[in-house]
User: Which sequence fits this backbone?
């Protein structure tokens, strides 16, 4: 059996999570999700996904806090994280760059096919 | 200096008067001799020339004597006069010192003086209120020992400046009061060094900007929250519509597909509106930052035309792209420039009737980089031309177009942004013929 790429979706919006899971699942990825940073972190460290799609503003633990924790882990140091967020202010984008995130996507600026393409690229 | 002058003046006047008197005395005879063959004729027979000379000399002695007496009087009294003047001056000095002290003590801005080691002296009342202390609790303490947590590096840098004699001008730093409250201040320190006062090497003022900072933070937080909360549902609509249209969860009928496409388009307008609203808010609260870097203007224009493809096709518009191989690598803010050009092209598309033409031209006119977007659209009524960059303005001839949803924010945003980038915008327009907007980049 082909080794499917594992993608973890961390977002507090149920609708967004559902549609992302469906689309990525239909596109042949192995997917898991979490509604906040706390659960996202737990799943990421257990499951070691190839890609984490990460929102910023979430209850309990936000995206930046989760990213900080992921980066302190041996596996997480180099994990591929794509920020997928509604925030496009310079401060947040600069923050991402500072944390070694090279992919920062504004949710409303990408359609699902483009997103699948982005996730597929390594 | 003024006192010296006042003693000298009577002396010089006296000398001048005596000199003039003597000259007149000496000259009077030859002159009189010239007018009259016998000068005594002038005086009549009653007075001989000897009598006249005697009278003249007597008057001279009286005048000279009076002046000498006056000079002696001035010399004798000058000491006591000096003392009097000094006494008056001291009173004025005391008064102005008192006034200065009251001004210093009562000023609403916290002031204190620093010695060479940066230790605090002479805190005024506002400074005591600022730190929440009595004078003994602050006197002799190093100013930067009141720095807030995380400000070590900044405090030591400012101290270095101070030690090397560099004036501090409105430097932002967080300080902490006795009760542990953190405050943002603009710290200024300037040199007031005087050999007689070792305790006052620098005069420091601490301008409390905590309220302003809190307000700024609240505004920024509000904008972040608004971005997040507004974009999450419209992103969900976008992706749900994408999902249905893609056929991944079952094929749609023709009618359903048409409806879904319309839903996607309406949502696209909503996304643009939210983007514009957020950008306008950022400009208005001053949180917009410019990030200058390599920018490919051609690429920006091409991607916008591509993005607006569906609207362009629907209206069967002709897009004429005249890039002339220019501006493939200029220094600008690609993100802001994209918002600006996007607004202009999308306006041209929106306000041009079916089968019209939109022309995008890049021109380098003597080092000035110009981007022009022209259309064959409805144009702007002549009477409204000076209002088009006003917020919420919408031209009267397009307000009724049901197919064009404008917010009246687009051109306001464009002008604010291009000015932020140091450029300018100009336009020509004729109603029912078209409009042409030209951006000039710095």
Assistant:
């Amino acid at each position: 059996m082909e080794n499917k790429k594992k993608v973890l979706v961390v977002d507090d919006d149920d609708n967004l999570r559902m549609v992302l899971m469906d689309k990525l699942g239909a596109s042949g990825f192995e997917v898991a999700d979490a509604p906040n940073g706390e659960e996202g972190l737990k799943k990421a460290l257990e499951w070691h996904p190839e890609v984490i799609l990460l929102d910023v503003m979430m209850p309990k633990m936000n995206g930046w806090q989760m990213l900080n924790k992921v980066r302190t882990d041996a596996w997480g140091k180099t994990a591929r994280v794509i920020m997928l967020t509604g925030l496009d202010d310079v401060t947040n984008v600069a923050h991402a760059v500072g944390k070694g995130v090279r992919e920062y996507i504004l949710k409303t600026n990408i359609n699902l096919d483009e997103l699948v393409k982005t996730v597929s690229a390594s | 200096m003024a006192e010296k002058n006042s003693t000298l003046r009577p002396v010089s006047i006296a000398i001048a008067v005596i000199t003039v008197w003597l000259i007149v005395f000496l000259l009077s005879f030859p002159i009189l001799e010239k007018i009259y063959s016998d000068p005594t004729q002038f005086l009549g027979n009653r007075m001989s020339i000897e009598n006249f000379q005697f009278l003249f000399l007597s008057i001279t002695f009286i005048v000279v004597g009076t002046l000498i007496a006056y000079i002696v009087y001035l010399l004798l009294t000058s000491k006591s006069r000096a003392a009097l003047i000094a006494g008056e001056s001291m009173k004025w000095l005391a008064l102005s010192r008192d006034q200065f002290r009251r001004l210093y003590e009562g000023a609403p801005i916290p002031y204190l003086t620093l010695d060479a080691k940066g230790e605090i002296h002479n805190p005024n009342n506002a400074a005591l209120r600022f730190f929440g202390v009595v004078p003994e609790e602050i006197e002799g303490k190093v100013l930067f020992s009141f720095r807030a947590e995380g400000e070590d590096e900044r405090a030591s840098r400012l101290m270095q400046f101070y030690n090397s004699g560099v004036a501090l001008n409105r430097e932002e730093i967080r300080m902490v009061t006795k009760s542990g409250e953190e405050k943002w201040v603009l710290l200024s320190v300037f040199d007031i060094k005087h050999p007689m006062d070792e305790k006052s090497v620098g005069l420091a003022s601490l301008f409390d900007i905590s309220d302003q900072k809190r307000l700024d933070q609240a505004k920024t937080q509000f904008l972040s929250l608004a971005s997040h909360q507004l974009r999450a549902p419209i992103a969900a609509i976008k992706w749900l519509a994408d999902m249905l249209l893609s056929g991944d969860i079952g094929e749609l009928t023709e009618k359903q597909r048409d409806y879904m496409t319309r839903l996607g388009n309406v949502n696209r307008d909503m996304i643009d509106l939210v983007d514009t609203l957020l950008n306008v808010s950022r400009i208005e609260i001053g949180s917009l930052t410019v990030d200058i870097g390599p920018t490919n203007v051609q690429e920006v224009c091409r991607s916008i035309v591509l993005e607006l493809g569906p609207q362009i096709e629907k209206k069967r518009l002709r897009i004429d792209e005249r890039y002339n191989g220019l501006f493939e690598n200029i220094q600008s803010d690609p993100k802001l420039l994209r918002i600006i050009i996007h607004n202009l092209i999308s306006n041209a598309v929106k306000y041009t009737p079916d089968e019209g033409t939109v022309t995008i031209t890049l021109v380098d006119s003597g080092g000035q980089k110009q981007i022009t977007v022209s259309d064959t659209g409805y144009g702007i009524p002549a009477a409204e031309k000076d209002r088009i960059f006003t917020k919420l303005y919408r031209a009267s001839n397009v307000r009724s177009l049901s197919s064009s949803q404008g917010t009246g924010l687009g051109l306001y945003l464009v002008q604010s942004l291009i000015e932020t980038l140091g450029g300018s915008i100009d336009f020509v327009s004729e109603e029912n013929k078209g409009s042409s907007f030209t951006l000039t980049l710095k």
The radius of gyration of chain A is 13 Å. The mean pLDDT of chain A is 88. The CA atoms of residues 35 and 72 of chain A lie 21 Å apart. The longest strand of chain A covers residues 80-85.
